[in-house]
Structures are given as C-alpha cells and as structure tokens.
Design a protein that fits this description.
Chains A, B: Pfam families: GST_C, GST_N. The structure is a homodimer of 223-residue chains. The first copy, chain A, contains 9 helices and 4 strands. The first copy, chain A, has 223 residues and is α+β, with helices and mostly antiparallel strands.
C-alpha cells in the first residue's frame, strides 16, 4: 500500500480540505499533528519555500498548498470526483476556489484580526463578498452542479469556521435575514456526507478562537 | 467551428499566457483589444466579479482568470499538453504557477511602483524570490520535465517583461553574475517555440513602461 502522510493542524481549514478529499476518495492516511510554534523538521524540509501546513507526503514525495493537494488527490486516487468532469465546470469550480482563497480569506483575516479602521473597512468589504456568493448560489445547492465539490471545499472557512469565529469575536457578519441563500448553502454543507462526519469539533474550535481573541484583547489593553 | 474570442490587452502578460496556450494548441481565435480605461460592455458582463482581462469566450461562455483559462484550453483542445500528464508533476507545475502569481507578482509591483521604503523592502524581497527560483532551476531547462509548460507560462512577467521594465525604470534586479541560472532560463524561454514568435514587441513594451514611469515621476514631482 502507498505510504500517505498528512502533515497538518487538525483545527485548520486548510488541513481539513485535504482530509476531506482523502475521505471522499476513501484513502487511508496517517495524520501528523504539527505545532505551528514548533514546526517539525519533516515539515520544514517538505515545504522549504512556505514552511506551511498542510503537506501531503505520498511515497516520500511532498505536495504543498491545500487546493493543489486536493487536485493531486483527485487525479491520483479512484473514487468520486472532486472536480467536475466537464472542462467548463472545472473552470468555474477553480474560479470560485480562487475567489475564496484570494478575495475572501485575506478580507476575513483583516475584518477579524485587523485594528480599528482597517477592520471596519474589511467588515464592509466582507459583506460585499458574501453578497457576491449569495448571488452566485441563487438556485443552486452547491457551487457547481448541485454536488459538493472543489469550490465548496475551498469555501470551508466561510461555511463552517466563520460562524464559530463570529461567536468567539462577538462580530456577526452573516444572518439568515441578510443572506438567506448563503445560509442555505451553509446548511447543505453541514449535512453533506462524508464531510459532516469530519468537521473539527465545534467546542474545540470555539475554545481555540476564544483564547485567540482574549490574547489579542490582552495584548491591545497592555499597549 | 467553435467561436473563440479573447478579450485582452496585447501588451499584458496575463493576456499573453492565454494567447500562448491557444498558439500551442494551434487553435484559431479572435483577439479583442480592450482599453482598461474604458472597458467594453462585453468585458464587464463576461467578468462581472473582477472586471479584468483576460476573458476567453468559448461558444458564448466566458472563462476568467488567466491560468484557469490556460487549464481550460489544455483540457478542451487537442495538441501538445501544457500541464504535464503525471499528477505529481502537475502539482509541481501548479505550485510554481501559484508562486509566481501570489508571491512574485505583488512584490514586483511594489518594488517598481511603490514609494520609498515600501519599494526598498520589496526590492530586497524580490531578490530573495529570484534566489528561490534560481535554486529551483538548478540542472533544469524549464520548471517541469525540461519542457516549456504551465509554470513557465505563469512566470512570463519575470521571464520577458521584467528586463524591459528594468530598462525603463533604471532599476536592475537581475544580472547574469548574480543569477546565472535564472538568466539561462530566461534565454531558453526567449528561444522557445511557439512562444518566441508571440512575445509582444520589445519596443512597444519599452515605450509603454517609459511613459508609465515618466507619468509616475511627473505625478510625484507635482505633489
């Protein structure tokens, strides 16, 4: 059997994308929990450029960058397809995956962890981005072909993590009154197999973000 | 025959990636030159989210984002493969394409068009990034499998545009003494068919960047 090792952090949405892809394919793997404050020599040597998780090591060869790993898994192992078969649908899936990673992710970071004016601006911008997603999801269960796939996977931070971060930070970006379609997508997501069996535990994530916001508040108070 | 229309800007490296992919596949297409100060209704309607070139319209369906379009072309048309066949090699090609777009591109922009301190910091950072590329290209003609492909295509700004921008701006980032391997890659690139027949004309690019730097200098002097 192929040796498959995933270097990751179990609460990270980036790691989870890869885990979900492996679960969808039904592939066995060894998960190696990394400490981001004290990265393992194996991680540093497997991803010398970015030094980031996740890294999938397949028969000794490392693959980096979560969505690139997901494509690798999709192309390498049998089982249900993660990217659709049709080239146009694939382009659409990649478009939204890129939108999540390059547009939504940095704005969410600034909205939540930025200071004052930067955070206010980012919150407004985040609302605009969710409006775009709301519009795209009109009449659709998932981003492409009504089947959970590549783009949805890339959107996991917004589909699952965000609500928990909202709770921890006291910032509410999304309500079902304001974004009913986006919320319906989130509900479909939460009920989708085999993803739903492999979310990180809600309580553990909440505790993690509570600690993070408390630390940020303490740092800001002591300035 | 399929109707294939490319909305682009002929001096843009992003447009060129798509043109090169179409040339490699030997596919006929209509090129529609866009004015970025006065975007066509077709562009705005085809890429309503980003409102950016290039957009490939294939049988009425728009595809956006240059490297996503290149993958679409690779998956849709017969002819030489742009991404390698092997999944691991594909992952490596995607890794370097992402590195160019997400790491090199923004740093180059800041190095060239940023002001004072920001620009100085970015110039230093750009040197570090070229060092990474120099190291990766050791003993290789191109990024994957010694054949011009996806990652090289994504690196076109650094392979062709950058030297011209250096000349126009008076900033020299790359010398063959400092980065001999990177320069050897650039030479291979310049001699590679069918790419070399489809670079934008050097003189036109130089005039474009000269005008841009003169305008920036005038704006800065009148502050």
């Amino acid at each position: 059997m192929a040796e498959l090792k995933l270097l990751g952090v179990s609460l990270s949405p980036f790691s989870r994308r890869v885990e979900w892809a492996l679960k969808i394919k039904g592939v066995e793997y060894e998960f190696v929990e990394e400490e981001l404050q004290n990265k393992s020599p194996l991680l540093l040597e497997s991803n010398p450029i970015h030094k980031k998780i996740p890294v999938l090591i397949h028969n000794g060869k490392p693959i980096c960058e979560s969505m690139i790993i997901v494509e690798y898994i999709d192309e390498t192992f049998e089982g249900p397809f993660i990217l659709p078969k049709d080239p146009y649908d694939r382009a659409i899936a990649r478009f939204w995956a890129k939108f999540f990673d390059e547009k939504c992710m940095p704005v969410m970071g600034k909205a939540l962890f930025g200071s004052g004016e930067e955070s206010d601006k980012a919150k407004e911008e985040l609302g605009e981005l969710i409006k775009i997603l709301e519009n795209e999801l009109k009449d659709k269960k998932f981003f492409v072909g009504d089947k959970f796939g590549f783009a949805d996977m890339a959107g996991n931070l917004m589909a699952y993590w965000m609500a928990i971060v909202e709770e921890a930070s006291g910032n509410v970006f999304v309500t079902s009154e304001k974004f009913p379609i986006f919320c319906a997508w989130r509900d479909e997501y939460a009920n989708c197999s085999p993803i739903k069996e492999h979310f990180p535990p809600r309580e553990a994530l909440l505790a993690h973000f509570n600690a993070r916001f408390q630390a940020a508040a303490a740092a800001s108070a002591s300035k």
